[in-house]
Model the fold of this input.
Amino acid sequence: MFSDPSSASLPPGSFHESHTIETPEQTNIEFTVAGVGSRALALTIDTLIQAGIALVVLAVFTLTAGIWSALPLAGIWLSAILIMIVFLLYYGYFALFEIFWNGQTPGKRRVGLRVIKDTGRRLSAVETVARNLLRIVDQLPGFYAVGIVVSLLNKQNKRLGDLVVGSLVVRESSSSQPKPTWYEYANQSPEHAMLGGERLSDEDVILIESFLQRRYELAPDIRWRMANEVFRRIEHKLTFTADERPGVEHLLETALHERRAI
Done:
């Protein structure tokens, strides 16, 4: 899903900032920070969807006007319900989609953006709700003026809600990006084999390749868990000391190279 610093870099002249985190497995993962323009495009798409939903709700209320008028205190109840619907439609729309779509709304998914924690993890439901409630401040005095100004004042384009909960909007990688680093091992000499990768079975090779090919499509927490699960299955076949152990993914890449070099 996300690009790795060792396998991909931004094109020359790119103005996108990057955010790099180091995992507990000593693997660095680099995220490309979404720009203000792409975030505005995603927001525009979401706003159009919200407007469509609002028109449907308005049509339903118009068609049922006769029923509402027959109720006592109809005006008060109708006003209260409409205020609640508007609040849920505007703020609940973003919060619910980002909770159940792992940091994405329809607009963000269309543009290729995702909200994550600074640590690479997904936001909790509470953090997602808090982040979106702060849109009340970000949109003041209109057209997200506060949010745009705050975003332009920090390198990671964070609006106020992002700063408060420690979130980050990142771009997802595409299939057009460079191949993963493990392809580079094909041109290296097998004389440096140190892990004993020749002891890997055909099933081990298939398992490692499947993970390495899919790892950039995975959420960071799932990627870390899968890397360690794959490594645990082959660890007893490899030779290394605890002090010499590099990142888990690097070990998988190196072991696969050694096995293929036979």
